[in-house]
Amino acid sequence: MENELWKKVYQIVQTLSNNKRPKRAIYNDADIILTYLWAVLHDRPIYWSCKKCNWPIYYRRRSLPNPSTMTRRLRTQQIQTLLKNIEQHLVNLLPDSICRWIDAKPLTISRFSKDKQAGFGYAEKGMANGYKLHAVADKSGFVAWTIKPMNYHEITAADELINGLNWEGYLIGDGAYDKNKLYDLAGRKSIQLIAPQRIKKAKGLGHRRHSPYRLRSLSLQKHSLGQALLQSRNIIETIFGQLTNLGCGLSPLPNWVRTQFRVEMWVRAKIIIHYIWRQKDKTNAA
Fold this sequence. Notes:
Shape: elongated
CATH topology of the largest domain: Nucleotidyltransferase, domain 5
Oligomer: single chain
Structural class: alpha/beta
Number of helices: 11
Strand content: 15-25%
Number of strands: 6
Number of domains: 2
């Protein structure tokens, strides 16, 4: 499976990179990204993929960049833009969906880590140190996501994600997203946010002003359509599960992936690999 997956990765990267390279550079952008993706695919640090002995025999003829070149080039705007373009190309291949889901997944690291950009906040089992992957997904995969420190508020992250959406339909989340400002923000983009009432024991809504989109959400939840939408929230958990349970998927952050820049780049590479794996899997099933 790995051989077929890598062939697809290689083909997409080479096609989208268009053999671009900076002036006086020995390696083009595709060489840098492929070397990085090879490391990510095997959950290894960059220097590991810079050694020919760690590549299949039929790939060892080509020259490989050294670790310092990799570190320098990966931080350039050109490489980061190409990585985002590769991800966006794969997202554009996904079918449109009227329903999408929003949630966050903790990416924990050691409590004793010296990563100053990580945060200490709520995770699945109490307090933890690290980052969170905030994402909007449909049945095919993630359509928008961001990496934030663990203590970054989910509502603020959701505000940023919804601002970047360009689509109409239903957006379903859990009770943490039951906020008037999120309903208004989504409503201005013709998106109906659906979230269960956060305070379930409340007898009413009180006397303060409520977003008409929140009132519509609560009204929908009294009918079968709204209940069905709420019950579909586990779909994004399935997407998170597929991303993490894949053999080359997003496992706990390794020791060499620290600071927000590296975490974001690592997660993006894992999502790219995940998209290509799902695309290949559907092709084989057909």
